[in-house]
Q: What sequence folds into this?
């Protein structure tokens, strides 16, 4: 029996290069559409287009997905008069590392792996990007560094923002796209994706509900300890005003993830989720 990675390993280099170029262009376009939807820190956009490099990482391998993500995000920054240095220090490495991990975790595809690979790779890649943001601003703001507690607090806050705004699209929008593409182009799809199967609802519920609960709880802490929010908004002189945005982000974002977890259970049979793997 041939290993699941056989077809992907046999893809010609020209196909991978073409896929990389097409994917990077699509990702840049998708990122540009939501370029100005920033987090409470003023950096780090709302990006549903995250499903594009994820798709290419699954169909064409981890290196294609990584380069699609890195080139696409930097192209978007260049075409929208974005901060290129900030992109190179944060967006590029974060996207590259995140989707390289994602592609490797899913080289032997299964829907259970898909759920956890999405959570792990998004958290890791976005943490790298968050640390890159802090490293960039540390060049201009005295006392800010990735070696300080405040630097890590800001990095983790940005990671939470990206996780809240990206994870639902990975779970809700990407699976139908993968399934439709596997039927249309079976020779390019990984073998595990072509097998009949459904996303395990228990794993999906846990991977949404637990992060949502943690974020909601942290947002509640910020309500009773606003000074912590001010500490995390250290990039701004008027941090006390923006600290309220953090409370909303964590509480509302956590609630959204928990509600989506409940929706997974409520409508699992209708949207192709299963308790089996």
A:
């Amino acid at each position: 029996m041939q290993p699941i990675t056989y077809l992907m390993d046999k893809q010609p280099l020209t196909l991978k290069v073409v896929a990389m170029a097409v994917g990077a262009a699509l990702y840049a376009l998708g990122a540009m559409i939501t370029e100005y939807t920033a987090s409470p820190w003023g950096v780090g956009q709302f990006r549903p287009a995250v499903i594009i490099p994820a798709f290419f990482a699954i169909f064409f391998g981890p290196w294609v997905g990584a380069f699609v993500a890195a080139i696409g995000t930097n192209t978007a920054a260049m075409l929208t008069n974005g901060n290129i240095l900030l992109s190179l220090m944060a967006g590029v490495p974060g996207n590259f590392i995140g989707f390289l991990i994602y592609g490797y975790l899913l080289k032997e595809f299964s829907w259970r792996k898909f759920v956890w690979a999405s959570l792990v790779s998004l958290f890791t890649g976005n943490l790298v990007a968050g640390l890159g943001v802090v490293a960039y601003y540390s060049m201009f703001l005295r006392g800010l560094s990735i070696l300080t507690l405040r630097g890590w607090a800001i990095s983790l806050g940005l990671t939470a923002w990206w996780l809240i705004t990206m994870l639902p699209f990975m779970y809700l929008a990407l699976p139908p796209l993968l399934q439709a593409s596997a039927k249309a182009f079976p020779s390019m799809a990984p073998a595990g994706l072509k097998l009949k199967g459904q996303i395990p609802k228990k794993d999906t519920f846990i991977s949404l509900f637990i992060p949502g609960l943690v974020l909601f709880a942290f947002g509640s802490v910020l309500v009773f300890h606003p000074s912590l929010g001010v500490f995390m908004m250290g990039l701004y002189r008027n941090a006390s005003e923006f600290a309220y945005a953090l409370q909303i982000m964590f509480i509302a974002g956590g609630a959204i993830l928990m509600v989506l977890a409940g929706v997974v259970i409520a409508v699992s049979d209708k949207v192709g989720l299963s308790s089996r793997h």
Summary: The first helix runs from residue 6 to 9. The beta strands are 199-200, 273-274. The chain is about 75% helix and 0% strand.
